[in-house]
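so my prof wants the structure for this chain in the tokens format not the other one, which i didnt know existed until like an hour ago. anyway here's the sequence
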Amino acid sequence: MALAIGASLYTHDVVNLPEMVSLAALGAGIGYLVVRWPTIRSVLPILALLLLPIGLCLLLTALAIDRNPIAFDILRPDDATLAPLNGWLLTAAELIGAAMAIAAAPLCRAVSEGRRGAERWLAALAGLAGWGGLAIALLLDEPGMAVIATIVGAGGFTLCAMPVRARGD
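here's what i got, hopefully its the right format
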């Protein structure tokens, strides 16, 4: 998600769907390689800690848009204020980014200590990253990023809601 948001901001005027899909595939590939070799238990704290820069990315992106909405083509120079929907999306992205940045370190500790339910919180926070990315995508009018962010958000919340199965070991 951080790669998709970063690429969208870096190439805001020329970004297109193949670039967004390729960055999502790259992020998914890196995630797959991280999870593939070691046991999943040892990777979960790393994944929880990686939510900190993603949350900061969301927060800083939203603050940059809030600081200068004209530069991001959200507000026209002759307009005085943001549309109400854009204001809500901007506030949502700021709050989600701040919540992720605050919750990442305690979540990393909880996952590493093996606390019950910590994996669900990890999935929920990852899903929250997707919904924050969706708010940014809607603000920037980036349909490719919106699709990817929706998939991330829905996937995280789906994993969070899945029933925990008993282990036989």
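also thought this was worth mentioning. The chain has one domain: 2-161.
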